[in-house]
Amino acid sequence: MKFLADRTLGRLAKGLRMLGYDTLYCRSEDIYQLIHLARQEERIVLTRDTKLAIRRPKDRIITIMEDHPSRQLKEVVQKGCLFLNEEKLYTRCLLCNDPIDAIPRKEAEGKVPDFIFIQQRDFYRCPKCGRIYWQGSHLDNMRKRVKELFHNKSEARNGF
Ligand SMILES: [Zn+2]
Predict the structure, then answer these.
(1) How far apart are the CA of 129 and the centre of ligand 1, in A?
(2) Which of 20, 30, 60, 63 is paired with 112 by a 20 to 30 Å CA distance?
(3) What is the tens place of the pLDDT at every residue in 102-123?
(4) What is the pLDDT of residues 16-62, one digit of tens each?
């Protein structure tokens, strides 16, 4: 399942990438361009425009009602569009959407803070922007929160 977030949903797009979902972020205000891209790449459109789904009944469009990005992510989960795949967590660049590649540890030296380099064994790099990622100590905590996101499906207001 691939997504295309409209210009109002940039943070939701990052949340979906964090979960491992291929999600493009469309900054354009041009609805035709958005729909065209979604059709071309078979993506589900995520929008806050409540009229779009009515105007375009043949396209796959999810209307997001929540304001807060974490609740928006929960909303997509509750609509049954997402599945938790722990192996996919943190496998994409949050900025570019590209899958990140494992790199030899020494290539990260000097490019990340020294204390991070000393603490961490595994590093990853976005092939597009070159940003380096590592699985910090925050990851266990994040995994827990991601699990909560999926397990408490009935609690719409539960924060992320
Ligand atoms: Zn990137």
Answers:
(1) 4
(2) 20
(3) 999 999 999 999 999 999 999 9
(4) 999 999 999 999 999 999 999 999 999 999 999 999 999 999 999 99
Residue 1 Cα to ligand 1 middle (Å): 20
How far, in Å, is the centroid of ligand 1 from the Cα of 70? 22
CA dist 49 and 26 (Å) reads 14
Nearest-angstrom CA–CA distance, 59 and 144? 34
Ramachandran angles phi, psi of 147, nearest 5°? -60, -40
Instruction: Look at 119 and 153; give whichever has higher pLDDT.
Output: 119
Structure tokens at 11: 């943070």
Quote the ligand 1 centre to 131 CA distance (angstroms).
Answer: 6
